[in-house]
Design a protein that fits this description.
The chain is of the alpha+beta class. 26% of the residues lie in helices and 31% in strands. The strands form three sheets. Strands 11, 12, 13, 19, 20, 21, 22, 23, 24, 30, 33 and 34 form a twelve-stranded antiparallel sheet that branches. About 1% of the residues have low confidence. GO terms for molecular function: 4-amino-4-deoxychorismate synthase activity.
Length: 744
C-alpha cells in the first residue's frame, strides 16, 4: 500500500540546517506535506494528541547534547511512546544520539571533532542503505555513541577515523520503526547518502504502517492555524496597501569618463562634515556601479533602535516619532516602500531611488528572538541606531565599465534639478584627487587584550567540543583616538579618512555613510545579499570564508592550493553555505541552488574563497514578489559568516564571550530600491564613529580643537581546528587595512 499525500512532522532543535532537511524530505517523499515545530513547543502529553495526524516524524539535528533536557526537549520522549502512539521516526545527528542513549548506548566525545568535514561511510547495502552505493557524507558532530552489544538499537553504518577509530553513522531499533543517521544527509556536499536514504526510510515506514494497521487521521484546515508551521509556508498574505502610482524615474545621462567618483562626491557636499552624505562605491573589481545620494534638508532620515516602540523620522530640520503599534520595524519599512514602488526606471541600473544606509548586527539578533539586555555593563556604550537609513530621491549612478554618469530623480516635477545638475557636472573641471591634509595628532590605538582574546578563543573551542556549536565567529573591537589642536581646512575629516581608506584598500563594496550621529567608512570585500527587481526575483548570497593576501609569489594556483586545499577553510565555508541554504529555504521553499562552492576569486589585494547560493520562488508560489527581497534580508540577519552555526545558539554563546555589542560592525549596509531590488554588503574592514549633532558643528571651530573616536571590529571563525595564536594574528591582520587610513 502506498500512502497518498503523507504528512510529516519535522521537529526542529533550533538548528540552522532544518529547512535543508525539509527540502530533502520533499524531494525524497512524493507529494508529502511538512509541519515544523520546535522541540520545546509541546511536552509529550500535548504532542500525543497531534501525532495521529502524521505519517512519520523527522527529528532534525541541533546544538547541544541529547542528555541535556533543554537541548533535546520532547524528542527524548518520542522513543518511549506507548504502542498505540508509536509512529515511524527518522533522526539526524542529535536525533541519532538521542535514540541511541535512550536505549542504553553510551554518549562520548570524539577525540577529534568533525565539523564540516567529509567521511566515507561504510554500510551493508540493506535497510536504510538498500541500493545505495558509496557514500561521502558531511559530518557536524563532536559527540558520538557507543552501542551495547545486546541493546535494542543496532548499527547500520559506520566510518573509520584515523583519530577516533570506528564511529557509528547509522542505526535502527530492532523492533520499533525508528531509524537515524549521524551524518548530515541534507548537506550540499553529502554524496550518495542523502536522497536515497530518506527515500528508503519512507519505504520502510510505509511497510511498517501497513503491518501495524496504522493510518494517519485526515488533516484539517483548522489544524494549520493552531499547530506548527507548514513548510514551505503555503501563502504569504500581504497586510500592505496596494502600491500607489508614482510619476516614475526621470533620468539624464552624461558621458564624462574623466570624472571620478571622488570628484562627483565633492561636488555634492562630501567635504561638509555637518551635512548628511551617502556613497556606495565599487572601488575595485568585480564591482561596477557606484551610487551617490544627492541629499538635502528635505531628505527623510529614518532611525530606529531595537526595543523602541517608535521610529524616528527627521525631515526639514524637524524630528518626530511615529508609533509602531503592533508592527515591527520591518513591516513599517515595507509599507513605506510599497507605497512608493516604481517600475519604469532604466533596467540597466541597479538603483533608481529608495533607502540607503546601514542595519546593525543587533537588529538581526532581535530577529532570532535572542534577548538583548542593553542595561548590562559593557552593552550600554553602543549608541548607534540599529536602523539608519535615508530615503534617496535624487541620485547619481556611475558606471565604471562604460564611463557613463546617470542622474536620476524620483521626486515629482524635478526637471530643473536634473538640468541644473547635469550642467554643473559638465562644467566640473578635471582636478587631481589629492588628499587634503589631516589634523596634526598621533593616533592612539587600543587593541583588545591578547590574553583575554585567546582565553575567549579557548572558551569558544570548549563550546565546540561540547557540541553547542559547529563554528563561532568571535570578534573584538579596537579603538582609535586622535586629539588635534585645530583643523587645517573646512573639509570633512571623515571624508579625507575615507579617501585614504579607498586608496589603500580598494574594495568592491566600499561605502561612506555620514548619517548623524553615525559615520561609517567601509572597504568591505563581501557582498551579503542581492535581490533582483521583480518579476522573477532571484536572491543571491555570496559568503566569503578564506582569504590570502596577494604577493608576487602568490599565483592563482598557489592561492587555490592554500584555500581549496585547506580542510579548515573549506569546512568554514561549507558550514556557512549550509546555513545560508537553510535561511533561503525558509523563505522561498524548495528552489535553492549552490551555483558555486568554494571557488577562488581574485580581488585587488587578496584572493578569496567564495561560494554563491541563489534562491527564487517557484512560478506557482503565492508570495507577493515585491516582498521577497526584504523578507530574505530580514530572515538572514545577522550574516551567518559573522555568527557561526547553528546561528541562534552561536549568537547566544557569543554574547557571553564578547565584551560589547557589535553595533554597526558585522551588520550590513546597502540599498533597498523602489523597484523592489536591493544589494547589501557585510560591514567588515570598516570603522565607525558616533558624534552628537553639536559635536559635528564644533568640528568647524578650530579654536576648540578636534577629537576623533573611531571603532574597528575584527575577528575570525573559530573552529575545532583553530590555533589560538594564529587566530589572534588573523584578527590583527584584518585590522591593518583600516588602520592604514589613520596612518597607523
Amino acid at each position: 500500500m502506498t500512502i497518498e499525500h503523507p504528512r510529516l512532522l519535522l521537529i526542529d532543535s533550533y538548528d540552522s540546517f532544518t529547512h535543508n532537511l525539509a527540502s530533502l524530505c520533499r524531494q525524497a517523499i512524493p507529494d508529502c506535506a511538512l509541519t515544523v515545530i520546535k522541540n520545546d513547543e509541546y511536552n509529550v502529553s500535548a504532542l500525543r494528541a497531534y501525532l495521529p495526524y502524521f505519517s512519520a516524524v523527522i527529528v532534525g539535528p541541533g546544538p547541544g547534547s541529547p542528555d541535556n533536557p533543554e537541548d533535546i526537549g520532547v524528542v527524548k520522549d518520542l522513543w518511549k511512546l506507548k504502542n498505540e502512539d508509536v509512529i515511524p521516526i527518522f533522526g539526524v545527528c542529535l536525533g541519532l544520539q538521542s535514540l541511541a542513549i535512550e536505549h542504553g548506548a553510551v554518549l562520548k566525545r570524539l577525540n577529534t571533532v568533525k565539523h564540516g568535514q567529509l567521511s566515507h561511510i561504510h554500510h551493508h547495502g540493506t535497510d536504510l542503505f538498500r541500493d545505495v552505493g558509496p557514500i561521502h557524507a558531511v559530518r557536524y558532530h563532536s559527540l558520538h555513541v557507543e552501542l551495547k552489544n545486546d541493546g535494542d538499537v543496532e548499527e547500520l553504518a559506520w566510518t573509520e577515523d584515523d583519530e577516533n577509530g570506528k564511529v557509528v553513522m547509522a542505526v535502527h531499533h530492532k523492533s520499533s520503526p525508528f531509524w537515524a543517521v549521524q551524518y548530515h544527509p541534507e548537506s550540499v556536499c553529502t554524496e550518495g547518502g542523502g536522497l536515497q536514504v530518506v527515500s528508503n526510510f519512507w519505504r520502510l515506514a510505509e511497510s511498517w504502517s501497513v503491518r501495524a494497521g496504522r493510518r494517519a487521521v485526515p488533516w484539517s484546515a483548522a489544524l494549520s492555524e493552531t499547530f506548527g508551521t507548514p513548510w514551505p509556508q503555503a501563502t504569504f498574505s500581504s497586510p500592505f496597501p496596494t502600491s500607489r502610482k508614482h510619476p516614475g524615474v526621470a533620468t539624464l545621462v552624461l558621458d564624462r569618463s574623466d570624472l571620478t567618483v571622488v570628484d562627483i562626491c565633492e561636488a555634492f557636499g562630501a567635504s561638509q562634515e555637518a551635512s548628511q552624505f551617502v556613497l556606495l562605491e565599487s572601488a575595485a573589481k568585480p564591482g561596477r556601479f557606484s551610487i551617490v545620494g544627492c541629499l538635502s534638508s528635505s531628505t527623510l532620515h529614518v532611525k530606529y533602535r531595537v526595543g523602541d516602540t517608535t521610529v524616528s523620522l527627521t525631515k526639514d530640520g524637524r524630528t518626530f516619532h511615529e508609533a509602531l503599534h503592533t508592527q515591527d520595524i520591518w513591516t513599517w519599512l515595507a509599507i513605506f516602500m510599497r507605497s512608493r514602488a516604481i517600475a519604469n526606471g532604466n533596467p540597466e541600473l541597479p538603483f533608481w531611488g529608495g533607502f540607503i544606509g546601514s542595519l546593525s548586527y543587533e537588529l538581526g539578533v532581535q530577529g532570532l528572538h535572542v534577548q538583548l539586555d542593553r542595561a548590562e555593563k559593557g552593552f550600554s556604550d553602543n549608541k548607534h541606531p540599529d536602523v539608519n537609513l535615508v530615503f534617496v530621491e535624487r541620485s547619481v549612478v556611475v558606471d565604471s565599465q562604460t564611463g557613463k554618469i546617470y542622474l536620476q530623480s524620483i521626486a515629482p516635477n524635478d526637471d530643473k534639478w536634473l538640468s541644473d545638475t547635469i550642467t554643473e557636472l559638465q562644467a566640473l573641471p578635471i582636478e587631481a584627487s589629492n588628499d587634503s591634509p589631516l589634523p596634526l595628532g598621533k593616533p592612539s590605538i587600543t587593541l583588545p587584550s591578547k590574553t583575554r582574546y585567546i582565553s575567549r578563543i579557548n572558551q569558544a573551542k570548549e563550546h565546540l567540543f561540547a557540541g553547542d556549536s559547529y563554528e563561532l565567529c568571535l570578534t573584538a573591537q579596537t579603538r582609535i583616538s586622535i586629539a588635534s589642536t585645530g583643523l587645517p581646512s573646512a573639509s570633512s575629516i571623515s571624508w579625507e579618512r575615507y579617501k585614504r581608506l579607498r586608496r589603500r584598500n580598494p574594495a568592491p563594496h566600499s561605502a561612506y555613510l555620514r548619517l548623524h550621529p553615525t559615520t561609517l567608512l567601509s572597504s568591505s570585500p563581501e557582498r551579503f545579499l542581492s535581490y533582483t527587481r521583480p518579476p522573477g526575483t532571484v536572491c543571491q548570497l555570496r559568503p566569503i570564508k578564506g582569504t590570502i593576501c596577494k604577493a608576487p609569489h602568490i599565483t592563482r594556483a598557489v592561492a587555490e592550493q592554500a584555500l581549496v586545499g585547506s580542510t579548515k577553510e573549506v569546512a568554514e565555508n561549507l558550514m556557512i553555505v549550509d546555513l545560508i541554504r537553510h535561511d533561503l529555504h525558509g523563505v522561498v521553499g524548495d528552489d535553492v541552488k549552490v551555483r558555486r562552492f568554494c571557488s577562488v576569486e581574485e580581488y585587488e589585494t587578496v584572493w578569496q574563497l567564495v561560494s554563491v547560493i541563489e534562491g527564487k520562488l517557484k512560478d506557482d508560489e503565492s508570495f507577493p514578489e515585491d516582498q521577497l527581497g526584504w523578507q530574505v534580508l530580514k530572515r538572514s540577519l545577522p550574516p551567518g559568516s559573522m555568527t557561526g552555526a547553528p546561528k541562534k545558539r552561536s549568537v547566544e554563546i557569543l554574547q557571553t564571550l564578547e565584551d560589547q555589542e557589535r553595533g554597526i560592525y558585522s551588520g550590513v549596509f546597502g540599498y533597498w530600491c523602489v523597484s523592489g531590488g536591493g544589494d547589501w554588503s557585510v560591514t567588515i574592514r570598516s570603522c565607525f564613529k558616533y558624534a552628537e549633532e553639536q559635536s559635528v558643528e564644533q568640528q568647524r571651530d578650530c579654536t576648540v580643537g578636534f577629537h576623533e573616536e573611531w571603532a574597528i571590529g575584527a575577528g575570525g571563525a573559530i573552529t575545532a581546528l583553530s590555533d589560538s595564536e594564529a587566530e589572534w594574528e588573523e584578527m590583527i591582520t584584518k585590522l591593518q587595512s583600516v588602520l592604514r587610513a589613520f596612518g597607523a
